[in-house]
Write a structure and sequence with these properties.
Elements (H helix, E strand, L loop, with lengths): L2 H25 L2 E7 L5 H13 L8 E7 L7 H10 L4 E5 L1 H10 L5 E5 L18 E5 L5 H12 L5 E6 L4 H17 L2 E6 L6 H7 L5 E4 L3 H5 L1 H10 L4 E3 L3 H4 L4 E5 L1 H16 L15 E6 H6 L6 H6 L2 E3 L1
Parallel strand pairs: 1-2, 1-3, 3-4, 4-5, 6-7, 6-8, 8-9, 9-10, 11-12
Antiparallel strand pairs: 10-11
Helix pairs in contact: 2-11, 3-4, 5-6
Length: 322
């Protein structure tokens, strides 16, 4: 073989290799794990699936999504995460902090894409710009948000002095949010009454404990999102103006929310999954932070509670539910 023939043959083989690899990738059926404590709102799943479709993945054709949800409790998550690893999923979508902790506890090789609050603060990643290891994803809130929610509640209820804080101590992300709320009360001249719950059986008694408070701050957590309809009804029945983290609560009849638009984050998570499936190391993908927070007010619930929303607050609202 002369030199020119050899060079041409080498060039052809080098070009053929990536083309063959890409063809093999396109012919694969990828397996994605979706891990969460509690059934997520349908919009989260719909937006994630829609995001995957935008990158050419159609469930049942070239991607299979293995859903693993609990009843809202955290304890089964490591077992479910290990089950996904045994199924040889290509990537795990960890929905909120407990799922991310569980996935990391059972694997340091399977890529993990999370949607959770303050991943750097919780030690999931050492650095948002360079998460490292087998994990990356999207942050959905930060430690200062509970304070901002309390400030909004104080604007709507100016005479507010005591706020009940509903939280789930078993969830480490709840603990940090409580600290964030506590750090803000001095400037707002508020007292916090911590009301812990361990499961839905505690909800009724928790609202009895909160009797006499002038408002309610419910921290973000999968237990509460799972049982949001029940919690919203208890707050209204107790005549407690409640501020929540996400729009899903006012949609269910809750009074007010301030936080990121979560369905958008799940749609964005699909872009991270696509990059991982195409071979990008998750640890090289910067954690994306929300750039927009939305204020949603349910006017119907406000009227039921006998509240008049100040015009200045209404003008800042991204959505008002009549």
């Amino acid at each position: 073989m002369d030199r020119r023939t050899f060079v041409n043959a080498l060039a052809a083989s080098l070009l053929a290799a990536p083309l063959a690899a890409e063809a093999q990738r396109q012919n694969r059926i990828f397996r994605v794990g979706f891990l969460r404590a509690g059934q997520p709102p349908r919009a989260f799943i719909d937006e994630f699936q829609q995001g995957l479709r935008e990158f050419g993945y159609v469930e049942g054709q070239n991607v299979v999504i293995e859903y693993r949800f609990t009843d809202g409790s955290i304890d089964p998550l490591p077992r479910l995460a290990a089950e996904l690893v045994r199924l040889k999923v290509d990537v795990i979508l960890a929905s909120t902090g407990p799922a991310a902790f569980a996935a990391l506890s059972v694997t340091n090789t399977v890529p993990i894409v999370f949607v959770m609050p303050d991943p750097e603060g919780f030690g999931i990643v050492p650095n948002l710009a360079h998460p490292g290891g087998n994990v990356t994803g999207l942050a959905m809130s930060s430690a200062d948000l509970p304070g901002k929610r309390l400030q909004l509640l104080k604007e709507v209820v100016p005479r507010l002095t005591r706020v009940a804080v509903l939280w789930h101590p078993a969830n480490p992300t709840d603990q940090v949010q409580v600290k964030g709320a506590q750090a803000s009360v001095g400037a707002l001249d508020l007292q916090l009454q911590l009301v812990p719950v361990s499961g839905p059986d505690d909800f009724e008694s928790a609202f009895e404990t909160a009797r006499g408070a002038g408002g309610l701050l419910q921290v973000d957590g999968v237990l509460f999102t799972t049982y949001r309809a029940q919690l919203v009804n208890l707050a209204i029945r107790s005549r407690l103006p409640a501020v929540y983290g996400f729009k899903e609560f006012p949609d269910a009849g809750g009074f007010m929310s301030y936080g990121a638009h979560l369905p958008d984050l799940y749609r964005r998570a699909a872009a991270y999954v696509d990059k991982v499936l195409k071979g990008t190391n998750p640890g090289d993908l910067p954690v994306e932070q929300p750039t927009k927070f939305e204020l949603v007010i349910n006017l119907k619930t406000a009227k039921m509670l006998g509240l008049t929303i100040p015009q200045a607050v209404l003008l800042r609202a991204d959505e008002v539910i009549q």
